Amino acid sequence: MPTIRDVADQAGVHPSTVSRVFSGNAKISDETRARVLSAAQQLGFQPNAIARSLSVRRTETIAAVVPHVFQGYFEDAFFPQVMSGLLDAAYPRGFRILLSGSNSHADEITQMFQILGSRQADGIVVLSTRLDVDTVGALRRQSTPFVILGRPVAEYPDICWVDTDSERYTAECVRYLINLGHRRIAYVGGDPEVAVTRERQAGYQRAMDEAGLPVNPNWIVYGYFAENGGYRAVHHIKEIGETMPTAFYAANDLMAIGVMRALRELDLCVPTDVSVIGTNDAPEAKHIFPALTTLRVPYAKMATKAAELLIDAILSDEPATGKAYIPSRLIVRDSTAPCKTSEV
Amino acid sequence: MPTIRDVADQAGVHPSTVSRVFSGNAKISDETRARVLSAAQQLGFQPNAIARSLSVRRTETIAAVVPHVFQGYFEDAFFPQVMSGLLDAAYPRGFRILLSGSNSHADEITQMFQILGSRQADGIVVLSTRLDVDTVGALRRQSTPFVILGRPVAEYPDICWVDTDSERYTAECVRYLINLGHRRIAYVGGDPEVAVTRERQAGYQRAMDEAGLPVNPNWIVYGYFAENGGYRAVHHIKEIGETMPTAFYAANDLMAIGVMRALRELDLCVPTDVSVIGTNDAPEAKHIFPALTTLRVPYAKMATKAAELLIDAILSDEPATGKAYIPSRLIVRDSTAPCKTSEV
DNA sequence: GCTATACTTGCAAGCGGTTGCATAGATTGC
DNA sequence: GCAATCTATGCAACCGCTTGCAAGTATAGC
């Protein structure tokens, strides 16, 4: 691999001249430039990005560490959308994305600080779903810009995040069910460890409260984002001998699908007997029968926004700032209908 | 950010000693090591990965450029599975993944050679679906290891690829239909520009030929991997006034879903009137009604294998070698049934 | 007790670009 | 025609870590 010095020799100029030709912003006579370029051409020279990065202290790269769980919870829509969103922002700005895996929650954090500390990227978008206060504190204490996808538990005035208002939109879903006449509504959450699970649950609670509807604690079940979890949630409710809810809100589509499978086994028809709302608008949502009414969460847009804020921060050489909510949207399909047993 | 020199000063040793402590493989007295480590601790030192990379000429990173089209064709399963597969291989080996976007087929190639030439990664797994001979030639001419996901058109003895035998497994699918008594079988391909489309078509052709069945050219339609493409394929066949095929093989599930939608509109029942086989086993395949019989293509495994071969090559400091076929598997669900109008 | 051998650590030259400063030559102003 | 001002290029230090070689000290061998 030829270096800048080889090109310099070949063109009869000083290495710094070659550097200036390639980094663009410098006055170089047309003649010299041509000589350098042709020498580079002949030698097949391309500047070494690593050397450049070392010198300018910039990698043109943003990092993300893939949550170890994405096989499970995230497969349904999160990960591909996030990646696509990150690329959408990074690519046109000349940035690339550095991805690390992880094999546990703790390792996610380790990987993050590894990348940050070793300066392998100019910034990081934090995908972890369970950021504790310590971690956020440590993030703030280091100097590489970061933005969090999702809102951290504790409110720091100065950190940058983008999220969707899970509480609000889940409340909207539940309200939609209530307006259809449903009064017995179940909440099928994901992993209770995960922030979004609590937020959605709060939205559910709020909508029920506002409508003056009682919340039966047995109707709050955690399905850990798995199809089977949704399935078991229904049977669980059935087994403890409760009257069935007439509607289910599930915190992802996979669980909603599981809920529908269980209902079918119990000879309950969706949507005539029971309504079901899912979350995320995964690809299968519109193809399943009945087509699933679902809360579409704009992961791609969120990721794009996050990457934009991050790159802005990098380019301006300041910590990332700004907080943004991206709106979710309820997509009404065929799994919801007016409640037929409208108790007054 | 403290450097190795700061730590050296603090610990009262030479920078090279600090370096040796951190790079592991060097005999350092326990006492010195302890002093260095504690100094590093105090200063919050972490070695700079970029500087290290420059020095050792290795980045511990493998690259991939995301085909610009993945939104379209690839969304259905390809991309997330590939990413997951790459991470599965890279992560435990201490490698990270560098991702670049692209906005056209030409740009895909540009990005690839950019990364390669600027030494931003130690190797690359090539995802492009339309590699021409020139590109492969250029890849071979440069010195960074690469492995191709998918088999390149021309056979070079020395390049490394991993693929699934699309022709063979498509033939298997078609044979399965034939064994169910179907004789009029349509082939709904993807983008005819894409290698895999031709390979699958060849498999279709082969199975038909082997069974002595005529192939009606009107039954070969390209749906460009889109749901709508599958939908239109059916209507196209209908409109030219042909007798309907009794079975469809579609080169991805999205198109198969489109085919089923069109059939439903024509009041043809799947699978009693018409059988449908899709490809990829996308998440929606098992949830759609009727559950889709589909050829499951092991993208994740393929990507893992590719990354493994690549990393082996990197570590051994030689070009990547080896060719591997990963088997696909027909997943039989409810969209296929014996042909009821068995003509003898 | 003295030399041969093994361990540790220091030294300094890289890895391949970048960039502030200096300088030589060209241009401008009057 | 000469000083002042620009322009284009060279010089050299630097980004932060690695590593072959040399040297100093400790240990072993006889």
The beta-strand count of chain A equals 12
Compute the separation of the termini of chain A in Å.
Answer: 80 Å
pLDDT averaged over residues of chain A: 92
Q: How much strand of chain A?
A: 5-15%
* Rough outline of chain A: elongated
Task: Provide structural commentary.
Two copies of one chain form a homodimer. Chain A has helices spanning about 5-10, 15-25, 30-45, 50-55, 80-90, 105-115, 135-140, 165-180, 195-210, 225-240, 255-265, 300-315; strands at about 60-65, 95-100, 125, 145-150, 160-165, 185-190, 220, 245-250, 275-280, 295, 325, 330. Chain A is an alpha/beta fold. Chain A has a six-stranded parallel β-sheet with strand order 2-1-3-4-5-11, with helices on both faces. Chain A has a six-stranded mixed β-sheet with strand order 7-6-8-9-10-12, sandwiched between helices. In chain A, β1, α5 (about 80-90) and β2 (about 95-100) form a beta-alpha-beta unit. In chain A, α1 (about 5-10) packs across α3 (about 30-45) and α10 crosses α11 (about 255-265). The model of chain A has no long low-confidence stretch (mean pLDDT about 90). The interface between A and B is large, with 47 and 47 residues. The first copy, chain A, binds a DNA duplex (30 and 30 nucleotides) through α2 and α4.
Keywords:
14% strand; alpha/beta; DNA-binding; 344 residues; elongated; homodimer
Q: Could you provide a short overview of the structure?
A:
Two copies of one chain form a homodimer. Helices cover 43% and strands 14% of the residues of chain A. Chain A is α/β, with parallel strands linked by helices and 344 residues long.
